Amino acid sequence: MSVLLFIVLFTALGGVLSVLAAALFLLLPEPQQKLVLPHGISFAIGALLTGAFCGLIPHAFEEVQPQQLSTLSATILAGILGFFVLEKLLVWRHCHSNACEAHGEDSHDDHHHGHNHSHGSGHRPAGMFIILGDGIHNFVDGVLIGAAFLTDVQLGIVTSLAVAAHEIPQEVGDFAILLHSGYRRGEALFYNVLASLTTVIGGVLAYFSLGDLHHVLPYFLTLAASSFIYIAVADLIPSLHQKTDMKTSLQQIGFILAGVVLILVMQGIAHRFEGAA
């Protein structure tokens, strides 16, 4: 199977399946949503960190000369700081007033109550912002997945899985905000699927633009790693600290480890598959 076909297949399947999983999640009764979502977040943390530290970073370091390792390390640091600044700018741009539709209390409630507000008056601005932001985010994910496949098929598969793991909880939130913004379920699903297809565009663009630029691929891999690390550490882990009882903490650790194990197992399977191909 050609690398381009791998890229198209995994970017398309990952994006669409993430949206469908989010849509199915919102069909669950509210008590089950509250039970399942934290486990999904914990699982995503394990998958993202393992994909970064056991997949992307080692492969990036293997692709360069020893004297370039410090530059790659600086790229990881710059990426994490860059994502922090970018998130700050986005939050400031859309939350400069006291009431913030995309990040404030309404957004928090939307994770569990968005389906109760699907008959609002018109499409509110937060909905369009979510669609646009999701499309851009998915495009970048596609570029990073494409860069990973160009480096190594095994790495591309693992990167795709890690992206999908964190996309599902994000798509749940996006879907809920669209419903709260006045979109019908069918419209919200359509626009989420449409935004997810930008992952394919990013992957194909990476294939044609980076295919002959192998010297820059390690830097794309480290940027992908910094993205995974930032999402896990800055966005996901803080939400786990809201509950500190022993039972919940053990469940969080268990699902984080499940994410770690899945990525490590898939690395082994992908490695054998690639060796047999």
TrEMBL record:
It is found in: Membrane. It is a multi-pass membrane protein. One of its GO terms (molecular function) is metal ion transmembrane transporter activity. Keywords: Membrane, Transmembrane, Transmembrane helix. GO terms for cellular component: membrane. It comes from the Bacteria. InterPro entries: ZIP. Its main location: membrane. This is ZIP zinc transporter.
